[in-house]
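Hey team,

Filing this mostly as a record. A colleague (T.K.) asked me to run one chain through the structure pipeline before their review meeting, and I want the input and output archived in the tracker in case anyone asks later how it was produced. No errors, nothing strange. Just documentation.

Input sequence:
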Amino acid sequence: MSNEMTPVNIQWQRFWVHPGETIRFASDGYLEDPQSDWGTQLNPNVQPVNLLADYQCLVLLGEPGIGKSVTLDIERTRIEKHLALSSQDPIWLDLHEIGSDFQLTRRLFDE
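Output structure:
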């Protein structure tokens, strides 16, 4: 019998905010639902992750294990369909595979 745990993918709504924006948490330390009346007043700059497709350049950064890769995997098909409507081709890069700014520049502009 294996002791490995099966990963669980909880289908909750994910949100994002621009760097430098203030995020206000509820008294219990959690994010107030950004789509509720109170949440829109408390955090007007917090947006659903599905709005990310509207940006021409996006870098998704954060602490390890918070679901960045999972979120992008879930949203990838929708983002690609959205971009296809405007004849744009996305460039998907995993920063784990890039070891320097030189490699990043090469992958973005030379390949």
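Quick notes for T.K.: The radius of gyration is 17 Å. Strands lie at 15-16, 47-48.
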